[in-house]
Amino acid sequence: MPSNAALIGGLIDVCREAIAANADHLSELDRAIGDGDHGTNMRRGCEAVYAERSRLAGLPLPKAVEEIGLTLVMSVGGAAGPLYGTLLIEIGRQMAGLSEQAEFPRAFERAIGAVARRGRAQAGDKTLLDVLYPVHAEVVRRAGLAGIAEEAERAASLTFGMKAMRGRASFLGDRSIGHIDPGAKSCALLTAAICRFLEEQCLA
Amino acid sequence: MTPKSANVGVVIVSHSPLVAQGAADMVRQMVGDCVPLAWSGGNAEGGLGTHAAGILAAIEEAWSDAGVAVFVDLGGAETNSEMAIEMLGEPRSGRVIICDAPLVEGAVMAAAEASGGAALARVVATAEELSP
Q1: Cβ of B79 and A41 within 8 Å?
Q2: What residues contact B129, with CB distance under 8 A and at least 6 apart?
């Protein structure tokens, strides 16, 4: 495994790259059912985190994750800022209290619960939760990293058939059906990027 | 304590800077300077949207020990406002309430109530009476 600093720095890099490469596509998805700025917002957030990269890499992992969340809240805006921010802030805080790594799924579950409360959303509402819950299920059943990434992508594509119940897309009612949710898509992209990175690190 | 900070403060949050500022101007014209008032509109780059950092700054600006009533337009404005309130930290976060009321009418009614020295709960209730 890489050093703590290399791990944090590497995760920041691969997430930034994944969003930068797909920002236009994310905004395009968002134009169909939202404000059309999800890619732009996420890119701004990733750049803000990247600007803090060396400081963050010097922190213990849980603290770094929490601070990345705070940076996202302050920079992303829209609904995505508080949602991704809440997820990472809670993962960081929960991780800080873990006595062993095996407890991670429980910490992850609590963080997802915090996101659901923040957005007052549940599974099937066509949000990033529709990726987070399946990803969590894969983590619980100890699926391999490649399997988790694949499931994230599959889960995001399933939002195509869902009717949006939360956020701007919910105003469209049935017209929101037939579009992939941009938040679910960015969540899948980030999950896949993180899994790929971790797999490379473990093999290296 | 200055007389200004004795009254409940009002914060207006809209996706549009023009809407937020316009609503704040309207409140100011109707109730004068006796209510702490601030607005946040638009994203970090000045485009349409809302962001927690801007809302946090607005709450700080309109801060009153009597509390602050926040008015929001669409979903993201509410989520970002909740985040900003949490970031204020205890005990101040407990004295900020997001009103379930229309942005313009709610802010005007709340400010009018606040200008008379009403407590936060009264200010919020007056604004929320406007909601069906």
Answers
A1: no
A2: B109
Q: Does residue A60 contact residue A4 with C-beta atoms inside 8 Å?
A: yes
Contact A148, A191 (CB under 8 A): yes
Q: Are B44 and B54 in contact (CB under 8 A)?
A: yes
Contact between A91 and A139 (Cβ < 8 Å): no
Angle, CA of A93, A154 and A2, to the nearest 5°: 45
Distance (Å, rounded) from C-alpha A82 to C-alpha A188? 18
- Per-residue pLDDT of chain A (204 residues), as tens digits, is 678 999 999 999 999 999 999 999 999 999 999 888 899 999 999 999 999 999 999 999 999 999 999 999 999 988 899 999 999 999 999 999 888 888 999 999 999 999 999 999 999 999 999 999 999 999 999 999 999 999 999 999 999 999 999 988 898 999 999 999 999 999 999 999 999 999 998 876
From the number of C-beta atoms within 10 Å of its C-beta (0-12, 13-18, 19+), residue B57 rates as middle
Give the count of Cβ contacts less than 8 A between chain A and B: 64
Q: Does B90 touch chain A (CB under 8 A)?
A: no
Query: In this complex, do B79 and A83 lie within 8 Å of one another by their Cβ atoms?
Result: yes
Which residues of chain B have a CB within 8 Å of the CB of A41? 43, 49
Residue B55: closest C-alpha in chain A:
A74
The whole-model pTM stands at 0.89
